[in-house]
Amino acid sequence: xxxxxxxxxxxxxxxxxxxxxxxxxxxxxxxxxxxxxxxxxxxxxxxxxxxxxxxxxxxxxxxxxxxxxxxxxxxxxxxxxxxxxxxxxxxxxxxxxxxxxxxxxxxxxxxxxxxxxxxxxxxxxxxxxxxxxxxxxxxxxxxxxxxxxxxxxxxxxxxxxxxxxxxxxxxxxxxxxxxxxxxxxxxxxxxxxxxxxxxxxxxxxxxxxxxxxxxxxxxxxxxxxxxxxxxxxxxxxxxxxxxxxxxxxxxxxxxxxxxxxxxxxxxxxxxxxxxxxxxxxxxxxxxxxxxxxxxxxxxxxxxxxxxxxxxxxxxxxxxxxxxxxxxxxxxxxxxxxxxxxxxxxxxxxxxxxxxxxxxxxxxxxxxxxxxxxxxxxxxxxxxxxxxxxxxxxxxxxxxxxxxxxxxx
Length: 408
Prior knowledge:
Helix 7 (176-189) packs antiparallel against helix 8 and helix 13 (285-294) runs antiparallel to helix 15. Helices cover 53% and strands 6% of the residues. The protein has helices at 49-56, 59-62, 66-72, 106-125, 140-155, 163-168, 176-189, 195-216, 230-235, 237-242, 252-261, 275-282, 285-294, 296-305, 308-322, 328-355, 363-381, 384-392; strands at residues 13-16, 29-30, 47-48, 130-133, 222-225, 270-272, 400-404. The protein is mainly alpha-helical and 408 residues long. It has 18 helices and seven strands. Strands 5-7-6 form a three-stranded antiparallel β-sheet, covered by helices on one side. A two-stranded parallel ribbon has the order 1-4.
């Protein structure tokens, strides 16, 4: 990322600790930046990038991070926090190394994570990412209240909220490790609590935490849930509902009638074309910046109307921004179809012009020839790429969900 050049800035702001560095300076300090532009006027002292590295290079920070769990497969402490890695293509160091050079020791993982953190600092020094001061001043109470309402809606009249869900929504702390410590203290008093319940409770509180941050920044929170397959989610739907992480299923007819009647959809997730996630992984920073401006009307309409057709518009805009080339097989198939239809049409027209007078065709047969020629002409001129794209966006092929709320 640091090699992309200063012109390939990312629409990301890193909020930083205001402390000064205790050790030797490596990256120095940078001024607070207002987005991509000049230093923020009246911003005060510069932000020390070396101080940020001192904070995130500590063993306590690294060994409790999701990056450590994804790289090593588990955490040395709080192993319950992330589920065991079961992906067939995972190996120690996945995401950083190849399968022939795995990270087999904690020291190797530490070096990988340190290098990744330092690349972020390099980006900050050249202005590819903006930096600002983290004040920690977020109001958790409204976000927790919003999650309580979501929990009540998820449980409905047929389920009781999980006791652990109600417990974690009383934690108004803005420090995640304090919430985790509270969960572990409660588990000591209730040893029957499972690792899965602990993770679900942590996820519920984290949703409120991220919502509070989004509200403070006057931003819209988008949450993608792609961890479980649809069948796996259906099998444990009641469990997820008792933690406010899923809603009761409804028939498509009920959903359609509600949309036609203008009934508010509440916190119900909307289906998203799964390929959109792949596009977001490979999109160029400049293209993403342009896309974010282009789709603002679509996102506003999505929030107000919650119409699935707006989601289709968003998915198509993402495809256009990425410009994914068609596969060789798709191109070959389209070419063969066009060649066959055009050739058949040409042979038919030429044959009729040569032997038309010799054939004794009735009026109905002549009309059949005309209609057949028209059909062949239409088949030859069809935009097969566009048709295939629309077909892939049909509701039955949707593979991810987007939890989008306009609470404020």
